[in-house]
Queue: 2 jobs
Job 1
Amino acid sequence: MLVNSKKMLSNAKKKKEVVFHFNINNLEWAKCILEECNELKTPVILGVSESAIKYMGGYDVVASLVYSLITDLEIKTDVCLHLDHGSSVESCIRAIDAGFNSVMLDMSKKPYQENVEKVSEVVRYAKNNDVSVEAEIGSMGQISGDSLQLGTNTNLEDCKNFVKDTGIDAVAASVGTVHGIYKGKLNIDYKLIENLYNEIDKPLVLHGGSGLSIETLKKCKEAGITKININSDIQDSWSKAVRNFIKENPDVIDPRKIIGAGFQAIKDVVREKININK
Ligand code: 13P
């Protein structure tokens, strides 16, 4: 069933479990993730970036694709369709109008007051449409090549005020992770996660979940993270499987066989991550 993320995240927060957000790029990604989560009987958030939306054709295409897969594949588990890193109020409204159940407005690089004002605007629109809202405070680090440019970890007091001032349903906090697969050792601030968990009434979101060991993901969960976003790990596994397939089968031209060679790799990543709740 399609739902917003409020109930799935508040249930998980109470049990100190994690709901995974997996980014989708196309029909195949959505299908594999839905099938695997349905088999594992676990709720899931399908995150879609604006660039992935553009790639697939638009907000309506994405919504109808996900809605139709849920019907045709008879998916029974709860699914939330979420706009990842929305860059403007307009983009969030467009997603909500298309049928997304959850949106993120990322104004984390803007001054505090502007972040609050824009996010509050989205919250007002979202509430009238039963849609949940995530927003970010603090800023994530960036990987460029093999080097890491550190971000600014979320400040506890700012975060408390931000949640109160905006009325958001989930807060993305910067605690030392980066988007993408960083090969070096990251300095994750588990104490900060614990403090945020104890003092903030809303679920905490960890962006940049790829490249972290299962042990690290479990430590983040135990410290108080409720939602973990995964994108690059799936892309990495899928592309390795497809590259191998093409190398070993240079004469195959059927795109279903080539693209499909990576399906099990997508499912394996999904299963491996979800199993941290066991
Ligand atoms: P990764 O690519 O590091 O998994 O990050 C995904 C993410 O945070 C999407 O919002």
Job 2
Amino acid sequence: MKLDTKTIAGLAEHLENCQLEARDTLKITEQHPELDWDDAYAIQDEILRRKLARGGRLIGVKAGLTSHAKMKQMGVSTPVFGFVMEDYLVPDGGEVATQALIHPKVEPELAFILGKPLKGPGCHVGHVLAATDYILPGIEVIDSRYRDFKFDLKSVVADNTSAAKFVIGGAPASPVGIDLSTLGVVMEKNGEPVAFGAGAAVLGNPATAVAMLANHLGARGQEIPAGAIILSGGITEAIAVAAGDTVTLRVHGLGSTSLRFN
Ligand code: 0L1
Ligand code: MG
């Protein structure tokens, strides 16, 4: 690690305040070009610690930048991992206060709900399918705290991978027997299809992203507990939204979920 504990705590406080006050900032590597991967995840961990200390509840984890479309959109080449809190979850068909966000975008994802804990290293797709109770359509609302979404990967990790809100819903189904690679998704904004794809866009199979996430946490001595919600990453590029927009995600055989920005 290149940063000391005080600097990590200060950067976590700064980034979390930007989230809580819906204001943007320059990427933190401008001030701290020496910041390394361990520093970036330590800042993310400190943001989580702050939320838990205030009574927040951790309900899941997420993989980001898992599709080639998304990697190309952001000019990066590796996935990143973050967490989601209970107050990020929007009821299916519910509303998101746009004013509480900086510049939200939406991503069509698959959510995995674990029936059993998942732990790396050595986690693979078979383990993910065996541990998953059910999968559901999920829309992630990302809201980078960095001005104009201009960042590098380490700054994004420190900023908890732009996590802000998400909705899940539709018809839960066991992933066993479903070909997740050919699972088709259509995301609509105000009734118009704006993004299409299939599960294969996420590293060939969204369960691969979940296995990578379990291995990432396993390398840090952590497991994903039973009951956790896992967002496996955007299947298409992210789509910008504004107040008044309604977004619906339809996934073949798994129904639909939606939210509205007020
Ligand atoms: O969930 C995601 O793929 C977001 C990763 C962070 C990058 C971004 O803000 O687009
Ligand atoms: Mg995402």
